[in-house]
Amino acid sequence: MHDVSMALGMVKESRRLPVVLETFHEDIRKNYHLIHHDVKQFMENYEIPMLLLSSSFAFNNGSGLGRHPLSLAQLSSRPSR
């Protein structure tokens, strides 16, 4: 954390922050498709296990999912809370 603080202090003192931000923004723009793919992949990997965990939790607490089992397709179509 100290290294980051020192680096930011150097950028601030050298008044290069606008240039650094512009370069960062341009790199994001050029690589947006890669960033979008990574975020989409992460969300797909995260959402399915969370659905399974929430259905398992509801089943164990007797909230009705255990009495009427739902398929994964039905779980994924349920509105989020």
Please give a handful of descriptors for the protein shown.
81 residues, mainly alpha, 2 domains, 0% strand
Please characterize this protein's 3D structure.
The protein has about 80 residues and is mainly α. It folds into 2 domains: about 1-30; about 30-80, no CATH class. It has 4 helices and no strands.
How would the blueprint of this fold be written?
Layout: H1 2-13, H2 17-30, H3 32-60, H4 72-77
Total of helices: 4
Q: If you compute it from the alpha carbons, what radius of gyration comes out, rounded to the nearest whole angstrom?
A: 22 Å
- How many separate domains? 2
User: Which spans of ≥5 residues are poorly predicted at pLDDT below 50?
Assistant: 64-68
Largest sheet, described in full? none
Distance between the first and last residues' Cα: 37 Å
Mean pLDDT: 74
SS content category: mainly alpha
In helices, the fraction of residues equals: over 70%
Dominant shape: elongated
SSE string, helix = H, strand = E?
HHHH
Task: Give a brief description.
The protein is an all-alpha fold and 81 residues long. It is 75% helix and 0% strand.
